[in-house]
Amino acid sequence: MSRIEPFYDSEDMSICISANTKFGELKEQIAKDHLYFPLAWDENATLLQMLQLSPITSYSMIFGSWADNILGMNIKYKGKKLPLGGRVVKNVTGFDFVRAIAYGGWTVLEPIEMVLRLRPKDTIESLKISGEIDSLKTFCNDLKSSPWGLSIDVLDFYFENKKYAVHVTYHGRDHEREILNKEMHRRAELCKLDATNIDYQFPFKYTDNLTIIHTTISKTMYWCNKLQDALNGSGIIHFGNGTIFWKSESEPSECQLLNWTEELSQEGGFAKTKDFQPPVNEELQKSHNNFIAQLELEP
Amino acid sequence: MSDQTEVIDWQTEWTELLRKACPDAHVLTDPIELTAYENDGLGFHRYQPDCVVIVNSADDIAPILKVAQVCEFPYTIRGAGTSLSGGPVAVEGGLIIHLSRLNKVLEINKEDMYCVVEPGLVLNRLNAYLKPYGLFYPPDPSSGFASTLGGNVAENAGGIRCFRYGVTANYVLGVEVIQQDGTLVRFGGAAAQGGTANSFNWTSLMVGSEGTLGVITKIWLKLKPIPEKVWTFLAEYKDLESSTKAITELVHMPTPPVAIEFIDNAVVQLVENSKMAVGISKDAWVILTEIDGPQPLVDARVDELKQILGRHGATKVSAEDDAEKRLKLWKARKVAGGLMGQLSPDLMIQDAVIPRSYLQEVLQFIYDQGEELDIPVLNVFHAGDGNLHPNFLFDNRIPGDIDNIKTLSKRLIEKVIEVGGTLSGEHGIGNDKSCYLDKIFSEEEINFQMTILKALNLNDQMNPGKIIPQRSYVGCCAPHKMQRKGNQ
Q1: Within a domain: B455
Q2: How many beta-carbon contacts under 8 Å exist across A and B?
Q3: Regarding the domain delimited by A7-120, which CATH topology (the fold level of the hierarchy) does it fall under?
Q4: Among the three residues B58, B79, B101, which one is the final residue of a domain in this structure?
Q5: Is residue B482's pLDDT more than 70?
Q6: Do B437 and A94 touch (CB under 8 A)?
């Protein structure tokens, strides 16, 4: 028996659940207790699929990455279930393999069960801000660096050829949302942008052809232009984190992904799709191989 | 040859080599100077190193590691030495590499909201540098006025604001590390919020590794905008039960406070009998909590906070937005540890985390056990995270006191594990808690933990005796190892 077994503790706001659970099933199980797991975005995809595609999603703006919200996991190692981490929100007992795996997007040692940190659900409200691209960039840059940036759940920049918009999501009591709404309208007006209330859902599905780019915030526009030229399609920039989800009819070639990663890796970023992620970068190769050898795994 | 003569022989040889390898560094060998390095903030488990090198540049480090390889002595990395689990202490002697002079801010990037720093930079100084940019680095261990960011990363430091903002690991984007063979590698970087492709996230493995996986020489940190307005609330309760009920409701708020701190009645009395008194009723149990953000929004949340705190039988709830008065409240919380020195000559501060739903049960258990063993227990801790910090007061000169402390610690750990908690939330394992590792981890789990050490730390030369108790380095200090251990 593993130290970590499936459980659900609504009072402690945590759950241990199979990594292959579809998000929709998790959502249904915890909704009755007014809890949610904000980082998942496609009800028909499994938790593991979404984690492995990108640890950064829309709600990372306020809640951090998936790795920040996975408290523990069971992995399959040498044919046995091995627990890592635990069920508490702070844990420095031993090396942080939970974060190392959750952030790795790696499929050799993958979680079979995960302990997730859940959040209390509140009324959520979204605004669509539209207008000129430069004004939208100013709006996003100013908002993320201001104290209001601490109270925003989502700051997603929608990028399509000559069609741009920003989606801002926030939660709170009625009077709090009113304040936030007023401030977002004020900021939009200041940038000569239109703001309208909408019901915002992340528009892409896991089954879409998605390319993920991790870069710095200031380089996201450069990369969106590059992806637009190379792939056509449309993208969502998670503006607080510098991550791009790009949806296109066709996937980039391995060669394109490798070239992009070579450029992105100067600052620790990379490009990937569901089916392809770039090989371990040269600098990490020695540490990676030594570790793999110690784990007695195939490189 | 006596042990003492042998020590002098090999010490002379390798300190000479160290001086040649890095002529600009300060090499300390005088036993009086070395005394300052024999323990950390924990205060006991004292081990004197054989030598300390204070480096002036990261370039000094690789040559030092080469000398260590040739001469076969263990080494331990140290910053300010404020840790509370023995992390930067030379358990098996050898060398301490002191990094406090590597204290520069290398870059502050306002647009991308990150900075790059050297490991010896003091945490609060970083926030002073960041202030003109409207940014701050959220983790805030109580030692922030002295502790270095390298130490914070090595121990995965937390602090009061962690409930909302998270711990050090949430903010480290990358690290530059000198590995045991002297190779410089970079894990992550400014654009690494998405982790790593096709491998483990090595940055995450370095955070909290307590100097066992390499020498960190550069750190990329994620930053947040400085909140415009802060309200601090202090609520007084007549008993433990009422205060823990209020904590549960605070934790479940959709927009939770930044911090939820619990101060027990004994600590309240201590503070109120000191110069740091803030006017709390001496028979109260206290919750200190805080909200921050943009001014109109934070001001609009004040009434709800007051209502929640008042709902569970609070005898008094006060809210403060005046910076000076707020600071005074927090100072009263932060000086609690120091004031405990008035009550007994020795103090052990524990660090454990439990699921928050067990807060009252575990707290009551600790008080009961302390009473049974005649050890006064004082609690002041991060309640929002379930991160307990019970303080055990004792007098090392009284026969039996230290045994009672060990018994109490053991019982606490067993209880914490029983309810699904863990050994440490922010102080690390070091050599203080390594003896409990097999209480929480199975043999397979310990072996799995060891794999990373076997990959990056051959023969356990880097910081032996830490995290995993079996770790020991067989080198030139080996003949004295048993003697050192026996002396503690």
Answers
A1: no
A2: 293
A3: 3.30.465
A4: B101
A5: no
A6: yes
Task: Tell me the backbone φ, ψ of residue B216, rounded to 5 degrees.
Answer: -80, 125
B436: tokens are: 């409990």
- pLDDT, average across residues A106-131: 94
Paired tokens of B427: 């102080």
Q: Compute the nearest-CA separation of B193 from chain A (Å).
A: 7
Examine residue B460 and state whether it is found in any structural domain, yes or no.
no
A79 contact B CB<8A? no
Alpha-helical (H) ranges within A38-148 are 47-53, 60-63, 66-69, 97-102, 133-145
With an 8 Å Cβ cutoff, is A281 touching chain B? yes
- Residue B479 in tokens: 């003949």
Using an 8 Å CB-CB cutoff, list chain B residues near A13: 251-252
**pLDDT tens track for B12-33:** 888 899 999 999 999 999 999 9
Cα B218 from Cα B178, distance rounded (Å): 10
Q: What is the mean pLDDT of chain B?
A: 93
On whether residue B449 sits in a domain, the answer given is: no
Q: What is the mean pLDDT of residues A50-68?
A: 97
Q: pLDDT tens digits, residue range A213-248?
A: 999 999 999 999 999 999 999 999 999 999 999 999
Which of B111, B190, B294 is closest, CB to CB, to A151? B294
Q: What is the amino acid identity at position A280?
A: V
Of B284-298, B331-345, B366-380, the least confident: B331-345
* Span B311-340, pLDDT tens digits: 999 999 999 999 999 999 998 888 888 899
* Sequence-separated (6 or more) residues with CB below 8 Å from residue B152: B123, B139, B141, B168
Residue B193 is part of which domain span? Answer: 105-225
CATH number at residue B385: 3.30.70.2740
Predicted pLDDT at B7: 52
Classified as helix, coil or strand, B98 is strand
The class of domain A210-282 in CATH terms is alpha beta
Smallest Cβ distance to A95: which of B205, B356, B426?
B205
If asked whether residues B267 and B212 sit together in one domain, one would say: no
Residue B111 in contact with residue A218, Cβ under 8 Å? yes
Rounded to whole angstroms, the Cα distance separating A197 from B204 reads 39
Which of A127-136, B348-357, B474-483 is predicted least confidently?
B474-483
Exposed / middle / buried, residue B433 (Cβ in 10 Å: 0-12, 13-18, 19+): buried
Chain B contact for A90 (CB, 8 A cutoff): yes
Domain boundaries defined on chain A: 7-120, 124-150+169-198, 210-282
Pick the closest to residue A223 from A155, A270, A165 (CA basis): A270
CA nearest neighbour of A217 among A231, A236, A237? A237
pLDDT at B488 over 50: no
pLDDT higher at B378 or B6: B378
**B368 lies in the same domain as B297:** no
CA distance B439 to chain A (A): 11
Query: Which of A149, A179, A219 minimises the CB distance to B300?
Result: A179
- Please give the Cα distance from B346 to B10 (Å, whole number): 36
My answer on whether B215 and B240 are in the same domain is no
Model confidence at A153, in pLDDT bands (50, 70, 90)? very high
B245: contact with A, CB 8 A cutoff: no
ipTM of the complex: 0.97
- pLDDT for A202-220, tens place per residue? 999 999 999 999 999 999 9
In chain A, residues 238-277 whose CB comes closer than 8 Å to chain B: 241-243, 261, 264, 266-270, 272, 277
Residue B443 inside a domain? The answer is no
CB of B420 within 8 Å of a chain A CB? The answer is yes
Quick one: B402 and B357 in the same domain?
A: yes
Residue B191 distance to chain A (closest CA, Å): 5
Residue B478 pLDDT > 70: no
Q: How many domains does chain B have?
A: 4
